[in-house]
Amino acid sequence: MKKFQEAKSLIESLEADADKFYNKANSAAGTRVRKGMQDLKNLAQAIRLEVQNTKNTEATKAKK
User: Rounded CA gap, 17 and 61, in Å?
Assistant: First the structure.
C-alpha cells in the first residue's frame, strides 16, 4: 500500500506543472511532467510486480 500512496502523491505533485504546461504553455513544466510520468510508470510497474508476487504467494499458501 505504501507504493500506491507514493503514486498518488506523485500525481498530486505533478498537477501544478501539468496546469502550467497545458494552460500557460510553459515548456519547462512539460519537461517536469514528462519526467514525473516516467517515474510514475516505473512506480506502477513496481506496484504491479508487488501485487503479482503477493497474489502468487497467497495462492501457494492456499494450496498447502
Answer: 45
Rounded Cα distance, 41 and 19, in Å: 20
Task: Split the chain (64 residues) into runs of 10 and give each run's mean pLDDT.
Answer: 93 96 96 97 96 89 72
Q: How far is 29 from 32, CA to CA, in rounded Å?
A: 5
> Whose grid coordinates read 510508470?
41
pLDDT at 37: 97
Closest CA to 22 of 33, 11, 7: 33
Q: Which amino acid is at 30?
A: G
